[in-house]
Sequence to fold (186 residues):
Amino acid sequence: MKLYIKYMVSIRCKMIVKSELEKLGLHFGVVDLGEVEVKDPISVEQREKLREGLLKTGLELMDDNKAIMIERIKSVIIEMVHYADELPKTKNSEYLSEKLHHDYTYLANLFSEATGITIEHYIIAHKIERVKELLLYDELNLTEISYKLNYSSVAHLSNQFKKVTGLTPTFFKMLKRKRRSMLEDV
Fold:
């Protein structure tokens, strides 16, 4: 049986979910972002205790099918952008359709209706957050970052970064260095 969990977006969230399941003595298999495979039937009482335990940590057990699908879309995007070594070389629409086994038009309409933004804008926002992370780590240059995140060019990445943040990637990186040197002077 699959359970779907809202706001489950990191490895730490997975650890929390595993801990809550273990407290209830529930046997589970795969624990992915946003979903858990529970091996045994789960009673109404266990489900309620799990719901309460998750709520205390900021996570939410979901029942609504549309909400579940929206969280699955978000989880696939987060996993794709933040945890994959490289973004897939296919179109985002094809990738999401394949992963979620639904027509992209259905996914896009459902997502936009529920969140107020398009899937593409959601992907762009996460890609820019990933760019910021990679710039702060200072391990890759802008060319390597643009390749890793599947941008057509460094100029495309830079333009999108500036449109979203109001800063160029170079200026963003410089601010980080400036902040670090100010902290060292304290």
In short: The CA atoms of residues 53 and 128 lie 33 Å apart. The longest strand covers residues 2-6. Residues 1-63 form a domain with the Alpha-Beta Plaits fold (CATH 3.30.70.100). The beta strands are 2-6, 28-32, 35-38, 60-62.
